[in-house]
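Same chain as my last thread, 220 residues:
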Amino acid sequence: MADTTASPTTTRAAVLAAAKKMLAEGLVEGTSGNISGRLPDGLVCVTPSSVSYEAMRLEDLVVVGLDGTVVEGTRAPTTEKDLHLAALRRYPELGSVIHTHAVYATMFALAHEPIPAVIEEVVVYLGGDVPCCAYRGTGSVALGDEVADHLADRGATLLANHGLVTCAASPEKALHNAALVERTAKIVWGARAMGATIHPLPDSVNRDMAGVYSYLRGNP
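reply #2:
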């Protein structure tokens, strides 16, 4: 297991705030989606299963170990906890993972098609195209491993037939990444609907800006 002693950390309040903002920005509906945040003690705060974001309070959040054992909380943790923990175990530079059901991003996930990094900020904040994972069962350890594989050098990945996952040093930054992916998916979808040719960024731009992402991710 990677050394997490120098990992970026967050607070329960920040996880809750991001959860409520995720709903307000239309990235989820009802009780769908989930958020995790690495705490200073090495544990992980996750949103609970089947609690609406409008009603969610600090005491509803659940604290688990990196092995998934519940340490604190009276509710069940999100059924997708393995998706979060696999990434946080593998990448100590990450402090938060967010799973959303953003509409346009999910359209690409249904098509098993990556979202192309045709806008510079996508490469800077996400590292490049947003790939699509192979289909794995919801809530499974296999899905967690598949997601972690795809987040090695990216700030986002699509879940086949399901939705979107983003990661960053904090819940705020992971939520920014989710909004960026959704906006980009909408722009690409719209350009294609126009019948327009979508031109890729020059290779040199992709290479240089991917380097920026790599540096920022390694120095949270």
